[in-house]
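Appendix B. Chain record.
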Amino acid sequence: MKIGILSRNPKLYSTKRLVEAAKKRGHSVKVIDVLRCYVDIESGKPKVYDGNDKPLDGFDAIIPRIGSSITFYGTAIVRQFEMAGVYVLNESIPITRARDKLRAHQVLSRKKIGMPVTGFAHSPKNTDALIRRVGGAPLVLKLLEGTQGKGVVLAENEKAAESVIQAFRGLNAHFLVQEFIREADGADIRCFVVGDKVIAAMRRTAQPGEFRSNLHLGGTAEVTKLTPEERKTAVAAARAIGLHMAGVDIVRSKRGPLVLEVNSSPGLEGIETATGKDVAGTIIEYIEEHAKPDKSHQNKG
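Structure tokens predicted for this chain:
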């Protein structure tokens, strides 16, 4: 097979591991800088070109590794490959759905998937009502465009919450107000989903004095065993968003597992290091099984 990996940096751990895993299984691999691509939108002949004006054709599968800051352009390139009939591991619409935290929460809510109580409003007059709806302080405020724990604030009392909300509104920033799950004790679970299975899971714990457990912010990770309900929740969340590969973050609460986020480009380093599992290899195996003309799930628009 000929596999393309959309990644801005071929030296990133995740990109390198996917290349290694694909080559180990006898496939041809090309890392494609998505921002150097351009598209030729011609009737009946969708084309993607690289930065050297060479057509990027002949691919059997594409693996998008698109950063949140280039979601619009990146998904446009992904969509062009879809139009050309190439199998894409995660398609453009599910990627944009996952990147929009508000939309993702609305989708999860519709599918009756457990998550912390979450509020969203525009008018300053709704501030008090928002705080009450999520159970009061402490509460969590999340910028819709934040990633890797950035733009996430814990307000320990209502005055602090009002101040942060006022500051976000002053910046014309959209944000969510979310229930704080105290019993999670600064930890969450990253479930790595491929297809209809959780292939690896790790428990991430925040460093002292921090409530965000992201590894980029100094959190630590260890292998963990999931309950059947946690596995079911993680797979259901990925399926609801429409992703075939996802990092689903959940917290353990008194009322069961609650989904915090569904990530369309989950990193491989933390999960492979913590669990010792060949996650990259499992992803390539999944592509081998599904990147076939009769199993195409390409998006038509």
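Further analysis of this model is presented in Appendix C.
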